[in-house]
Specification:
Elements: E1 5-6, H1 15-33, H2 41-58, H3 62-69, E2 95-96, E3 102-107, H4 121-139, E4 144-152, E5 161-172, E6 175-184, E7 187-197
Antiparallel strand pairs: 1-2, 2-3, 3-5, 4-7, 5-6, 6-7
The structure holds ligand 3VV.
Pfam family, one: RHA1_ro05818_N
Domain RHA1-ro05818 N-terminal helical: 7-63
Keywords: Apoptosis, Cell membrane, Cell projection, Cytoplasm, Fatty acid metabolism, Hydrolase, Lipid metabolism, Membrane, Transit peptide
């Protein structure tokens, strides 16, 4: 039996990961502030633009960045679900379990809101698509999403721990079937069934 394993890049306390953590806080704070805020938004916009100018000025060329981010440890650092270098990632940390499934727990805040106080359905779809992809990796046969069927059973709450699970259920030639769920307080909020096709795009080099 395989021991549980972390399937997500560990966030560092410094470097770009620390800046990304700060950026996530900015996104959340802007939503919290809204148009009724007494903060000087014009000045805040100038400050944020100067931060972005500084980052762009020091960034490698895009083609070089595309090579780096798909090489070595880079692979799991930039995706929009688990990536510690991606400010739009919640981020979710996934653990491969001994029973072959993958599992993670996260709490979503205002940036991921759809209906009032609840998670946007497209965000649940994003998280489940990625989790099913990681479940395939953990199971040893992975591919690209061909179909993703979601069932939204009940509204998914913001501000509460959500358990995200995924497991590969079958492989038939190049067709891979995978299922998963988002649960809150032990109740299934969203369930997913995915068909993946064993195919991998070449990594930029
Ligand atoms: C500390 C670190 C530790 C490390 C751990 C790392 C873990 C993490 C690692 C990695 C995690 C990554 C997680 C990613 C998750 C996200 C995944 C995505 O978002 S993928 C992007 C979205 N999907 C696309 O863009 C696909 C676009 N579509 C295509 O490219 C093609 O249509 C494709 C590949 C789906 C199929 O095309 P064809 O040409 O390769 O194959 P054909 O010949 O058409 O089909 C093969 C068989 O599949 C069936 N098929 C194909 N599509 C189907 C469909 N939609 N429905 C039903 N059957 C379908 C066909 O009927 C055929 O079946 P018959 O062999 O004849 O029986």
């Amino acid at each position: 039996m395989t021991a549980p394993q972390e399937l997500t890049a560990d966030p560092h306390q410094d470097g770009v990961d620390a800046a990304v953590t700060a950026a996530r806080r900015v996104i959340e704070s802007l939503l919290r502030a809204g148009s009724g805020s007494t903060a000087e938004m014009g000045r805040i916009a100038d400050q944020l633009n100067s931060v972005a100018d500084n980052l762009d000025e020091h960034a490698p060329a895009m083609n070089q960045r595309m090579v780096d981010m798909w090489a070595g440890e880079g692979t799991t650092r930039h995706d929009p679900v688990t990536g510690p270098e991606n400010a739009i990632a919640p981020p979710l940390q996934l653990i491969g379990q001994s029973d072959g499934s993958v599992r993670g727990v996260l709490t979503l805040g205002l940036p991921y809101q759809g209906p009032p106080g609840h998670v946007h359905g497209g965000i649940s779809a994003l998280i489940l698509d990625h989790t099913l992809g990681v479940a395939n990796h953990w199971a040893g046969v992975s591919g690209m999403t061909a179909e993703l069927t979601l069932r939204y059973h009940r509204p998914t709450p913001l501000f509460e721990p959500l358990t995200i699970t995924g497991v590969q259920t079958g492989v038939d030639g190049r067709k891979i079937r995978t299922s998963g769920a988002v649960t809150a307080g032990g109740e299934v909020c969203v369930s997913a069934e995915g068909l993946f096709i064993a195919k991998h795009l070449p990594r930029p080099r």
